[in-house]
């Protein structure tokens, strides 16, 4: 299967989203939380977020 993104784009996207996730959860950064969970995937054409609530 061929990659759908260039390596540089994939690396940058993964790094950015990982940093946002860590900021949201470890630093309680409200902006990072909102970006990840309130529509950041709609702003980033390379990301499709599928959240799941754990009970």
What report would you give on this structure?
This protein is mostly helical and 55 residues long. The chain is 58% helix and 0% strand. The mean pLDDT is 89.
List keywords for this structure.
55 residues
Condensed summary:
This protein has 55 residues and is mainly alpha-helical.
Write the layout of secondary structure elements.
Layout: H1 7-26, H2 30-37, H3 40-43
Helix pairs in contact: 1-2
Order of SSEs: HHH
Q: Span from first to last CA?
A: 36 Å
Query: What quaternary form is this?
Result: single chain
Helix content range: 55-70%
Number of continuous helical runs:
3
Large-scale geometry: globular
By helix and strand content, what is the structural category? mainly alpha
Q: Mean pLDDT, nearest integer?
A: 89
**Unreliable sequence segments:** none
Count of distinct strands: 0
Radius of gyration: 13 Å
| Main sheet specs | none
Strand portion, in percent?
under 5%
